[in-house]
Specification:
It is a single chain. By secondary structure, the protein is of the alpha/beta class. The chain folds into two domains: about 40-145, Orthogonal Bundle (Arc Repressor Mutant, subunit A), CATH 1.10.10.10; about 200-335 and about 355-395, Vaccinia Virus protein VP39 (Rossmann fold, 3-Layer(aba) Sandwich). Helices cover about 50% and strands about 15% of the residues. The chain has 17 helices and twelve strands. The strands form three sheets. Strands 6-5-4-7-8-12-11 form a seven-stranded mixed sheet, with helices on both faces. A hairpin with a 3-residue loop joins strand 2 (about 125-130) and strand 3 (about 135). Helix 3 (about 55-85) packs across helix 8 and helix 5 (about 100-105) packs across helix 6 (about 110-120). The longest helix is centred in the first third of the chain and has 32 residues, at about 55-85. The protein is globular. It starts with about 25 loop residues before the first helix and ends in a 5-residue tail after the last strand. The structure holds S-adenosylmethionine (SAM). S-adenosylmethionine (SAM) binds near residues 198, 298 and 300.
Length: about 400
């Protein structure tokens, strides 16, 4: 990823150490307790005793299950993947079926289908019903009902392939990962990208935008603004949702030219051309369009390293008037309970993709202040694990 460096002495390298943990502050008494606990648990006599006593046996069993989950998680993901790929969830959405009935539809033998359904039932994806039939389980019902989730799960085939050798990735092998080919802008200049390079990810992002957009629009009231600039706004889904929610809001989607063309068509198809438009450009090399009083960056910053994000924030600062607002929406590192999403999933996903990281609120505040923003604050959304908001106002230009 090209671009100037951030202000001297701050987050000034794409290889800057991860600071994603900065909201959580380890302390010495906790360290001492951890050392004591770990010494105790490492002792085989203690573990034997714990497994024998009724209460500690429950804790020991939980630990066994956690370790097993860590070892077996890959088989869980692949079970879900197979269910989605074979259309099992869609087939069971409104009825129950036996393995024998499902098998010929999806090209499996009945025993193979029974094996998959048993695996999926153990994970709550499907549920055994009367008469040897299967219906959706709670987890399967939510996955089937959530728009775009099936596409997200399908595209994970790229992630699984890239993670076949995680140690090589961690040692710096970046070339040829499937995710870096999929995300045409990952780790390389994107200005030359054509539709064939961007269509797949643009469709995926559009398909998964609806619930995110709803959560953002519920958490932050855009009716106080007149003109929205959605930077790197993909196929225009967020801008369309914002205009539909607020009838007096106008919106521009800015993205790479081939992506902006899709946004323009979708805005027209939604009957919003009088208030909505799309502008093509490269946010690394081109100025952003002016005339807006609020800008959004939805699921964008995490894809990029510090120099690019610093530059992007300065470009947004320059494009907005004094007092204008920037709303950043994405998974925020350090959010309690979201560690597996921000640090494990995105940590490895973005490594395979070739750039970017999730950031804590403190990381964003540092970057935003360096770009000249003031009044930096965070707002939780009802999807707080997947998407938090960082909101800031344009102050004086940075020196
Ligand atoms: C992860 S997608 C998010 C899209 C949208 N905001 C959403 O949440 O669905 C990132 C977007 O950034 C755009 N993008 C990446 N690099 C860009 C660049 N240099 N200039 C303009 N857009 C860029 C991509 O084309 C893509 O649409």
């Amino acid at each position: 990823m090209t671009g100037p460096t951030a202000p001297a002495g701050r987050l000034d390298s794409a290889a800057a150490p991860m600071t994603g943990q900065s909201d959580r502050r380890p302390c010495a008494p906790l360290d001492a307790w951890r050392n004591f606990r770990n010494r105790l648990v490492a002792d085989p006599r203690f573990r034997r005793l714990a497994a024998a006593l009724p209460f500690s046996r429950l804790i020991a069993e939980q630990a066994t299950r956690r370790i097993f989950d860590l070892c077996a998680g890959f088989t869980y993901s692949q079970t879900l993947f197979a269910c989605v790929e074979l259309g099992i969830l869609a087939r069971l959405a409104d009825r129950t079926m036996t393995a024998e009935e499902l098998a010929p539809d999806v090209g499996l033998s009945a025993p193979a289908m029974e094996r998959l359904l048993a695996a999926a039932a153990a994970l709550g994806i499907v549920e055994p019903c009367a008469g040897g039939r299967y219906g959706l389980g709670l987890t399967g019902t939510i996955i089937a009902a959530e728009p775009g989730l099936a596409e997200m799960i399908s595209h994970h085939r790229l992630l699984y392939a890239d993670l076949a050798d995680p140690v090589a990735l961690l040692r710096g092998r970046r070339d040829g990962t499937r995710l870096s080919a999929y995300w045409a802008y990952a780790g390389r200049p994107a200005a030359e990208a054509v539709a064939a390079d961007t269509d797949a990810y643009t469709t995926l992002m559009g398909a998964t935008q609806a619930s995110i957009a709803d959560a953002i629009l519920d958490a932050y009231d855009f009716s106080r603004h007149r003109r929205l600039l959605d930077v790197a706004g993909g196929d225009g889904s967020f801008a369309i949702a914002a205009m539909q929610r607020h009838p007096r809001l106008a919106a521009t989607t800015f993205d790479l030219p081939c992506v902006a063309a899709r946004a323009e068509a979708r805005i027209a198809a939604a009957g919003l051309s009088a208030r909505g438009a799309a502008t093509g450009g490269d946010f690394i090399t081109d100025p952003l369009p002016g005339g807006h009083d609020v800008a959004t960056l939805v699921r964008v910053a995490l894809d990029h390293d510090e120099p690019t994000v610093a530059r992007l924030l300065r470009a947004i600062h320059a494009a907005l008037p004094r007092g204008g607002t920037l709303v950043i929406a994405e998974p925020i590192a350090g959010t309690a309970g979201a560690e597996r999403i921000t640090d494990t999933y995105f940590g490895l996903y973005l490594l395979a993709m070739g750039g970017g990281r999730t950031r804590t609120f403190d990381d964003f505040r540092t970057l935003l202040k360096a770009a000249g923003f003031v009044r930096v604050r965070r707002i939780a959304t009802r999807q707080r694990l997947l998407c938090g908001l960082v909101v800031a106002q344009v102050g004086s230009p940075p020196l």
